[in-house]
């Protein structure tokens, strides 16, 4: 390959970024860690737990470095908010320390394993409520801003590159986190979760949730992702036939990535094999052409992200031939 073609391939490969997989399920299934209340942040309290988190991150860091692609690493802090922390015996001060420690661990692990890697450390902020119980919980943006402010500020002070509101089912809560991030002066992204019907639990469409969040926060968010849904379910969310032109435009212009599940909602078993998962995830770009970040959520691990990297590498190689 000539130098010009090598440069072209490198520049095109860097248009997209990889992300890690489903941290909680991978810690359980690959590394044998039992997480109370599905809270990965509790592992930060022991040396053995920190080693498990490092080993969780390792294959994603090595994969991205080997592929020459940027990497977005989430901190293990999805549950590290006041209610879940209190349920696990953590004070507000202890939670701030946990969030800071999580941010440092993600960055230091990547810098140790791949010092030249283009890295984004994303401070992961999960929802206040667990809607798996069948109840729909909502928060006013002002309430959500107050509730999540401490975690946002702790992650920002620890030097994350951005915070991400993950598995958001309530637009009001997402709006509050964006407001808290703006007040703290840290970049933010929002990742909405959709159900088997492609809608948020309250019945809102993905496009409507994005529009409302942008309207009420002066479009401060860097963009939006979809996570914790199978690619087929995400496709339903992206392709709502009754969506307004404004909603369609929001999806077209504001979706920046996907971190999806290997299995459909309610399905038993491991879900899609890595190659099938990668194909289905990357096919969503036809509905959300601005998507640039590709990772996983429940039931996914390094093989799923490796399959995405392989597919992207083949695309880039074909484009420069």
Keywords:
single chain, 321 residues, alpha/beta
Care to describe what's here?
The chain is α/β, with parallel strands linked by helices. An eight-stranded parallel beta barrel has the order 1-2-3-4-5-6-7-8, surrounded by seven helices. Helix 8 links the parallel strand 5 and strand 6. Helix 3 runs parallel beside helix 12, helix 5 packs across helix 6 and helix 8 crosses helix 10. The longest helix is centred in the first third of the chain and has 22 residues. The protein is globular, with a radius of gyration of 19 Å.
- Got a strand count? 8
Task: Give the CA-CA distance, first to last residue.
Answer: 10 Å
Q: CATH architecture, please?
A: Alpha-Beta Barrel
Q: What share of residues is helical?
A: 40-55%
Number of helices: 12
> SS-based structural class?
alpha/beta
In CATH, what is the class?
Answer: Alpha Beta
Q: Note poorly predicted spans.
A: 1-14
Q: Main sheet?
A: 8 strands, parallel, barrel
Order of H and E elements: HEHHEHHEHEHEHEHHEHEH
| Rg | 19 Å
How would you sum up the global shape? globular
Mean pLDDT: 93
- Percentage beta strand: 5-15%
| CATH topology-level name | TIM Barrel
Strand order of the largest sheet: 1-2-3-4-5-6-7-8
Kindly give the count of domains: 1
CATH superfamily: Homocysteine-binding-like domain
């Amino acid at each position: 390959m000539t130098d010009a073609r090598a440069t072209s391939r490198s520049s095109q490969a860097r248009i997209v970024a990889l992300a890690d997989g489903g941290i909680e399920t991978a810690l359980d299934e690959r590394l044998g860690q039992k997480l109370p209340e599905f809270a990965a942040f509790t592992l930060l309290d022991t040396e053995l737990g920190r080693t498990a988190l490092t080993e969780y991150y390792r294959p994603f860091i090595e994969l991205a470095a080997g592929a020459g692609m940027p990497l977005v690493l989430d901190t293990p802090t999805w549950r590290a908010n006041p209610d879940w922390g209190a349920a696990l015996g953590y004070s507000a001060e202890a939670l701030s320390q946990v969030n800071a420690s999580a941010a440092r661990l993600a960055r230091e692990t990547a810098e140790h394993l791949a010092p030249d890697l283009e890295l984004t450390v994303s401070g992961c902020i999960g929802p206040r409520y667990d809607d798996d119980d069948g109840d729909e919980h909502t928060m006013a943006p002002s309430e959500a801003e107050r509730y999540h402010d401490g975690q946002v500020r702790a992650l920002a002070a620890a030097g994350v590159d951005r915070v991400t509101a993950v598995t958001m089912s309530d637009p009001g809560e997402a709006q509050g986190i964006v407001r808290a991030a703006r007040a703290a002066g840290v970049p933010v992204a929002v990742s909405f979760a959709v159900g088997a019907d492609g809608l948020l639990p309250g019945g809102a469409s993905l496009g409507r949730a994005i529009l409302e969040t942008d309207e009420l926060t002066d479009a401060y968010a860097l963009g939006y992702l979809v996570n914790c849904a199978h690619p087929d379910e995400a496709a339903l969310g992206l392709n709502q036939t009754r969506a307004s032109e404004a909603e369609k435009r929001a999806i077209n212009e504001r979706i920046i990535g996907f971190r999806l599940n290997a299995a459909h909602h309610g399905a038993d078993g491991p879900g899609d094999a890595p190659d099938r998962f990668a194909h289905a995830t990357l096919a969503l770009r036809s509905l959300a052409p601005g998507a640039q970040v590709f990772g996983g959520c429940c039931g996914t691990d390094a093989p799923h992200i490796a399959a995405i990297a392989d597919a992207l590498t083949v695309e880039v190689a074909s484009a420069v031939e």
